[in-house]
Amino acid sequence: MTAQETVEHKYVYDFAEGNRDLKDLLGGKGANLAEMTHLGLPVPPGFTITTEACKAYLASGEQPAGLADQIAAHLAALEQGMGRRLGDPDDPLLVSVRSGAKFSMPGMMETVLNVGLNDRSVVGLAAQANGNHRFAWDSYRRLIQMFGKTVCEVPGEEFEHAIDEAKRAKGSTDDLDLDADDLRALVDTYKKIFSKHTGREFPQDPREQLDLAIRAVFDSWNAERAVIYRRQERIPADLGTAVNVVAMVFGNLGPDSGTGVAFTRDPASGAQGIYGDYLANAQGEDVVAGIRNTVPLQELERINKPAYDELLDYMARLERHYKDLCDIEFTIERGKLWMLQTRVGKRTAAAAFVIAGQLVDEGLIDLDEALHRVNGAQLAQLMFPRFQLDHGFEPVATGIGASPGAAVGKVVFTSARAVELAGQGEDVILVRRETNPDDLNGMIASKGILTSRGGKTSHAAVVARGMGKTCVSGADALDIDVPKRRITVAGRTVTEGEVVSIDGTTGKVYLGQVPVTPSEVVQYFEGELDPEATDGALVQAVHRIMSYADARRRLAVRTNADTGADAARARRFGAEGIGLCRTEHMFLGDRRELVERLILAREAPEREAALAALLPLQRADFVEIFRAMDGQPVTVRLIDPPLHEFLPPLEQLAVDVAVAQERGEDVAKEEALLAAVRRMHEENPMLGLRGVRLGLVIPGLFAMQVRAITEAAVECTRQGINACPEIMVPLVGAVQELETVRAEAEKIIAEVAGGSDVEVLIGTMIEVPRAALTAGQIAEAAEFFSFGTNDLTQMGWGFSRDDVEGAFFWRYLELGIFGISPFESIDADGIGRLVRIAAEEGRAARPGLKLGVCGEHGGDPDSVHFFHAVGLDYVSCSPFRVPVARLEAGRAAVVTAGSDSR
Ligand code: ADP
Ligand code: MG
Ligand code: MG
C-alpha cells in the first residue's frame, strides 16, 4: 500500500486502530469492538471493513479498487497474530463475518460464523480440539447453513427440516444428542440442499467463502426488510453497513464452553444488578434463537467462577466507560472468557428515567446529560395506563405496538357494531384484518383497534395515532374471519362479544380482561404522589429530571383548554397559561337554541336579543377559566368554525320537516332552519365563512365576545383574581381584517375596563399562509402571534386532515414521501419555513412581539425543538401533553454537539 492510498482509500481498520467515535465509518459494532480492544478487554482479534467500502460497492456493484488487497493484508496480519491460516487443513483459523451499521438494526442484517471450514479443515479443527469431532462437524454444518441462507438465499427451512429429521431419527429433540457421525451425515445432507438450490458445490476455498460473505453483508443493506425497517425508524438510507471479520472463538467445545448475553442493569426497570442469559456448549445465535433453554446469568458463578468474576469486572468497567447501561455478548471457550460485542443498550421508557437518575447519583453524568438520556416519547408512554405487572396472562399473539396504551373491551368485527355497542356504554375493541376509511366511525367508538395485517404505517396505525387510540397492528397469528365474526388463534376461537386486552406499546394481545393500573407518573403530576414520600424509583427520577427541564428551558409551556376543569388540570401538569381557549364549545348544548336564533335573525333587534342572551353565559365561562388560571395569561380565540356547524345536519332536518308536514304540524321554524342550512351550505367549509370573516359579516358577534371577556376580567379583578386576557382573532390573512376587528374591540375594552387595572392584549392567529407571508404588516396591528400550525399545515399543503389521514397518508408514509405525518410533527422545510418567516418579519416590525404556537404540534417532541430553534416564546398543547412539552423544551435548551437521542 502506498502512503497516498492509505490516506485516501483506507477501507479496512484493525480493531486496534478504531475507536467508539468512528461509528459512521466502522458501524456501531466495529467501533465498540475497537473500543473494547483499547480498554484491554479480551476481544478476539479482527478488522472492520468500512461503510465507505460498502457505499462504493453498492454504488458500482464492484468492490472498490484496493479493497481486496487491503483485506488480504489485514487477513495476513490476523493469521500471523493467531499463528494460524484461514482454512488451513491442519490448524485452521476460522472467522466470523458480521454486519454492523451505525444504528443497530436488530435482525435486519447478516452474520456468518465459522468461515474457513471445508472438507479438509474440518478434520484439522477436530484434531486441534483434542479430537472433538462432534464440535468440528457441528461448526461445519452451521457454516453451510448460515452461508447457504444468508449468502446464497437457500431457504432456511430446508436446513431446519433436515436437522429436525436427524434429531427425530435419534428419538430426541435436543441437538446435543446428535453425535459426530450424525453431524457428518447432516453436513452431507446440507451440502446437497446447498447445491440443489445454487447449482454449485459448497465453496471449499476459504478466501472465496470470505469474499462472498463480505459481499452478502454489503448486499444485506439493501434487502427489502432492511429498507422498510429504515424507513420506519427514519434511519437514512445511504449510510451503508460496515463488515467485521473476527477470529472465531468457540462456545460449542463442550460443557466448559458456552455463550451468553448480559446487561449491566435491568433494561426493563433500570434496577441495578446482574441481568442476562447463559447457554453452555452453544454457539452465538443459539441464545437468542431459543434452541435450548438458557440459564440466568447468575448461574455462571457456579459453573465457572473465575470467568464470572471477570465478566462482572468488565461489565462494571464498560458501564463506567460508556457512562450508561451496556449490553454485552460473550463466549467462553474452554473456560476462557471472550468479549464479542457491546453497545449502549436499549431500554424501556421507565428504565430510561430510572437509569439516568442513578447515573447522576453515581456521579457518572450530570443533569444536562441525564436530560438527554430521556425523551418526550418515553414520558408520553409512561403517562398511559398500563397492564398490571405480573398479571399472569399469556399473550396469544404479538403484533406491532402501533399506538400506545392498554385497552380492554369486547371484540367487534364491524364499524357498525362498534358504534352500536359503544352507544350502549360497552367498551369495544375493533378487530379487522386491516382497516380502511369506512372503519372511521368504528375506530372512534372503540377503546382500541386490533388488526392482523399491516405495520406501523398501516391505515389502522396512522389513524389510531392521530386519534390517540390504542392500536396493535399486524398480529398475524390471528386468523380473522369477519363474515363469521370470529378469530381463530392458538387453537382457540374468539367470537363477537368476548373480551380481549391489547397492549399498544408491546403489541401483545391477550384473551380476557387483563387488569389495568393507572399511570404512576400521571398520579405524580396530579399531585397524588409525593416523590419525597414514595419509594418509587420511577416517580423520583421523573420528578428530578422534570424539575431540571423546567429550570433549563427557555420556552414557556401553555395549554389548550376550554373549561375551568381542563385549565386546572393542565396547571397541575405544569402549564403556565392558556395558549388556546376555544369559544365554540360555549355555543353548544342548551345554548344551541340561542345560536339558531342568531343565525335565523332577519332584523337587528332579533339578532341583538340573541347576542344579549349569550353574553352572560359566555361571561360566566370566562370567569371560571380566569379563576383557574389566576395570574397566568389566557388567550381566548374568538369564534372560529362556520356557523352551520351549530345547525342540525341537512338530511335530518329535511326528514323532520317532511314528517312534521305529514302530520299537519306547524313547521314554520323548521322550514326556516332548513332554508338556512341550504343557504349556508359550503363546498369547502374549511375555506369558507369562518374565523375573522364571520366576525366581519355578522354584526355584534365578536363585539359580544370581546365584551364578555372584558367584563369577566373586570369582575375577577374585583374579586382579587388576577385575570390576564389575550384576545385572539382567528384566520386572519390581511392586516386590514385585523385592524377592523381591533378598532371595534378597543372601543369596547375602553368602555368596559376603562379605569380598572385590567389589561387586554389583542393579537392574531397565524394560520393562513398569506398571514405568514405578510407578517410584517400584520404585526402592526397585533400584540402577539399564535401559530395555528394545524390550519397552516392544511392550507400550506392544500389538504384537509379529516379527508386525507384515512384516505392516503398510509400510502405516503409507506412510499417515504412523508417520514412522519405533517400533522404529527411539523414539516420544518415547508410549513416550518412559513413559521420562520412570520416570526422574523413580525419581530422586525414590532420588537417584543409575543410569539407562540397553539396547534397540537406544540406537544410534539420534534416540533418543540423546532419552535425553540425558531425563537418562539411559548408552545401550547392539550393538558396531557404539557409534561412532554416541558421535558422537550428543556432538552432543546441543552442540546449539545454530538448528542444523539436515537
Ligand atoms: P447480531 O448483530 O445479529 O447480534 P453478530 O454479528 O453479533 O450478529 O453475531 C451473531 C452471533 O454470533 C452473536 O451471538 C455473536 O456473539 C456470535 N459471534 C459473532 N462473531 C463471533 C466470533 N468471532 N466467535 C464466536 N461467536 C461469534
Ligand atoms: Mg450481536
Ligand atoms: Mg385554525
List keywords for this structure.
single chain, 902 residues, alpha/beta, eight-stranded mixed beta sheet, eight-stranded parallel β-barrel, 37 helices, 46% helix, 17% strand, elongated, disordered N terminus, disordered C terminus, binds adenosine-5'-diphosphate, binds magnesium ion
How does this model look, in words?
This protein is of the alpha/beta class. It contains 37 helices and 33 strands. An eight-stranded mixed β-sheet has the order 14-24-23-16-17-18-19-15. β16, α17 (415-423) and β17 form a beta-alpha-beta unit. It is elongated and about 105 Å long. The two termini are 38 Å apart. Mean pLDDT is 92; it is low at 1-6 and 897-902. Bound molecules: adenosine-5'-diphosphate (ADP) and magnesium ion (2 copies). Residues 329, 341 line the site of one magnesium ion.
What's the SSE blueprint?
Blueprint: H1 3-8, E1 12-14, H2 23-38, E2 46-49, H3 51-60, H4 67-82, E3 85-86, E4 92-93, E5 95-101, E6 111-115, H5 121-128, H6 133-152, H7 156-169, H8 180-198, H9 206-220, H10 224-233, E7 241-247, E8 258-265, E9 272-280, H11 286-289, E10 295-296, H12 300-303, H13 305-322, E11 326-333, E12 336-344, H14 349-361, H15 367-372, H16 376-382, E13 386-387, E14 397-398, E15 400-403, E16 406-412, H17 415-423, E17 428-432, H18 440-445, E18 448-451, H19 459-467, E19 470-473, E20 479-481, E21 486-489, E22 492-495, E23 499-503, E24 508-511, E25 516-517, H20 520-525, H21 537-552, E26 556-560, H22 564-572, E27 578-582, H23 592-600, H24 604-628, E28 633-637, H25 650-662, H26 668-680, H27 692-697, H28 701-718, E29 724-729, H29 735-753, E30 761-766, H30 769-773, H31 775-778, E31 784-787, H32 789-797, H33 801-807, H34 809-814, H35 831-845, E32 850-853, H36 861-870, E33 874-877, H37 882-893
Parallel strand pairs: 3-4, 16-17, 17-18, 18-19, 26-27, 26-33, 27-28, 28-29, 29-30, 30-31, 31-32, 32-33
Antiparallel strand pairs: 1-2, 2-7, 5-6, 5-7, 8-9, 8-11, 9-10, 11-12, 13-25, 14-24, 15-19, 16-23, 20-21, 21-22, 23-24
Adenosine-5'-diphosphate is lined by residues 44, 96, 98, 111, 113, 246-249, 284-285, 329, 331, 340-341.
